[in-house]
Design a protein that fits this description.
The complex is a heterodimer of chains A (108) and B (119). Chain A is mainly beta and 108 residues long. Chain A contains no helices and eleven strands. Chain A has strands at 4-7, 10-13, 19-25, 34-39, 46-50, 54-55, 63-68, 71-76, 86-91, 98-99, 103-107. In chain A, strand 9 (86-91) and strand 10 (98-99) form a beta hairpin. Helix content of chain B is 0%, strand content 51%. In chain B, strands 2, 4, 5, 6, 9, 10 and 11 form a seven-stranded mixed β-sheet that branches. Classes of the chains: A mainly beta (108), B mainly beta (119). The interface between A and B is medium-sized, with 23 and 19 residues.
């Protein structure tokens, strides 16, 4: 199965700053089948991005996804207070779908 | 409101059993493939089990095959996961998730229910 490694484990930033999160796969993710989820403490995870770069319904355009093959990136252009959370990547190009271990974006 | 609400978690001894439930509302539950995903403390998310919309096909991760049973009752808009022969490795928050129609990612998650296996 494909192993996803997210980095960094924790990202300490201030509101208004740019956040860049990495998700690296142990083998190529076919057709860019990669999703990103946001999880706030005590809340249900929320789909942000699918197909590596397509925003889900209702997701603000400050969130963007990019990448292909084995390297993918989630960028938050300007952090809002509500963006401080844990972010998970998931590949669904190979069965079973697998997740990274998560990146926590915390307030500096 | 479109939502999934899990229940049934708790503390259970090793070797014991637990039945998790997931109540769906706000959408036509019977038309969606549903999964369970879990997250152990300090670990990433992990696919556990899947069931087709009518319940005829059930799939399991190797780590739970033969011990967990997924089922659904479309008349009650409810998804279930029966956990048995539990070990400490099964301690996790269990999430009920809705799979999008064509691809294996999830567009709706519940808040999860915690199952703790400990003596």
């Amino acid at each position: 199965e494909i192993v996803l490694t997210q980095s960094p484990g924790t990202l300490s930033l201030s509101p208004g700053e740019r956040a860049t999160l990495s998700c690296r796969a142990s083998q190529s993710v076919s057709s860019g089948y990669l999703a990103w989820y946001q999880q706030k403490l005590g809340q249900a995870p929320r789909l942000l991005i699918y197909g590596a770069s397509t925003r889900a319904t209702g997701i603000p355009d400050r969130f963007s996804g990019s990448g292909s093959g084995t390297d993918f990136t989630l960028t938050i252009s300007r952090l809002e207070p509500e963006d401080f959370a844990v972010y998970h990547c998931q590949q669904y190009g190979s069965s079973p779908a697998t997740f990274g271990q998560g990146t926590k974006v915390e307030i500096k | 409101e479109v939502q999934l609400v899990e229940s049934g978690g708790g503390l259970v001894q090793p070797g014991g059993s637990l039945r998790l439930s997931c109540s769906a509302s706000g959408f036509t539950f019977s038309t969606f493939v549903m999964h369970w995903v879990r997250q152990a403390p300090g670990k990433g998310l992990e696919y556990v089990s899947a069931i087709t919309s009518e319940g005829s096909v059930k799939l399991y991760a190797d780590s739970v095959k033969g011990r967990f049973t997924i089922s659904r009752d479309n008349s009650r808009n409810t998804l279930y996961l029966q956990l048995s022969s539990l070990t400490s490795a099964d301690t996790a928050v269990y999430y009920c998730v809705r799979k999008v129609s064509t691809y294996w990612y999830y567009d709706l998650w519940g808040r999860g229910t915690l199952a703790t296996v400990s003596s």
